[in-house]
UniProtKB/TrEMBL annotation:
Gene Ontology BP term (one): DNA-templated transcription
Protein name (record): PaaX domain-containing protein, C- domain protein
Residues of the Transcriptional repressor PaaX-like N-terminal domain: 13-74
One Pfam match: PaaX
Native organism taxonomy: Bacteria, Bacillati, Actinomycetota, Actinomycetes, Micrococcales
Length: 248
């Protein structure tokens, strides 16, 4: 199988490496010297990491105190969102689906974009323009911005065919298997870190279908386990590099 490239596994910048390390650290803070050593482990020059850290502090992404960098409130919230995306908690499937219909025409572009983003976070997929659906196994969706929205519970005649129409399940599974191959393969540290970051994004796009609707050998659970194992590995690397004051 070909290694993922381009869109599947875009290269990580020094900023993305720093965020990945801090998002995986417990607690989520690391000394500048530790980040420099970790940067070298992933093939980045320590000077490149220092520049990235300075820019991230200036942009409000990190807090810096006595040479220790910590995630800002914004990224701490992202950490919680990421956890929820990686480990959803589906309920029993009763055959009922959720359907959201946008009824208002001529909505501002920013409102349409916000609605779409919220629906995608809720793992809805568009059936057609303005109509979004998903199986009802994830409970009530989070509040969705937009006044002109109607919500329905429906029971499709052929739920398996509908799932195949809403999501390209073969493509999702193929990409997941490619990421699994890299995470378990002999590639270098930066390639595996890049695959782990891609796995987070890919798991956020998992439709989390009920078991009854999953294709055979659906790789979502394996990808979650592999990502969790890699994150433990990354945390161990970060802990080895950490100075005592960042471990409290």
């Amino acid at each position: 199988m070909a290694r993922p490239q381009g869109e599947t596994m875009p290269p990580l910048s020094a900023r993305s490496v720093a965020l990945s390390l801090l998002l995986g650290a417990t607690p989520p803070r690391l000394a500048a010297a530790d980040l420099g050593r970790l940067a070298a482990h992933f093939g980045l020059a320590p000077a490149t990491m220092r520049v990235a850290l300075s820019r991230m502090v200036a942009a409000g992404e990190l807090d810096a105190n006595d040479g220790v960098y910590a995630l800002s409130a914004r990224h701490l919230a992202r950490r919680e969102t990421t956890e929820a995306g990686i480990h959803p908690e589906p309920a029993a499937y009763t055959g009922t689906w959720r359907m959201i219909v946008a009824t208002g025409g001529g909505r501002p572009a920013d409102e349409r974009q916000a609605t779409r983003a919220a629906l995608e976070r809720g793992r809805f997929a568009p059936l057609r323009e303005g109509v979004w659906m998903r199986p009802g196994n994830l409970g009530e969706p989070a509040p969705i911005p937009g006044d002109a929205l109607l919500a329905f519970s429906v029971v499709p005649d052929d739920d398996q065919a509908l799932a195949g129409r809403l999501w390209d399940l073969d493509a999702w599974a193929e990409k997941a298997r490619t990421l699994l191959e890299v995470l378990h393969g002999p590639e270098g540290p930066m390639t595996r870190l890049t695959a782990a970051a891609a796995a987070v994004r890919h798991l956020a796009a998992d439709p989390v279908l009920p078991a009854e609707l999953e294709p055979a050998d659906w790789p979502a659970a394996r990808l979650r386990r592999s990502y969790a194992a890699y994150r433990d590995e990354l945390a161990a690397i970060a802990a080895t590099a950490s100075t005592p004051e960042t471990k409290d």
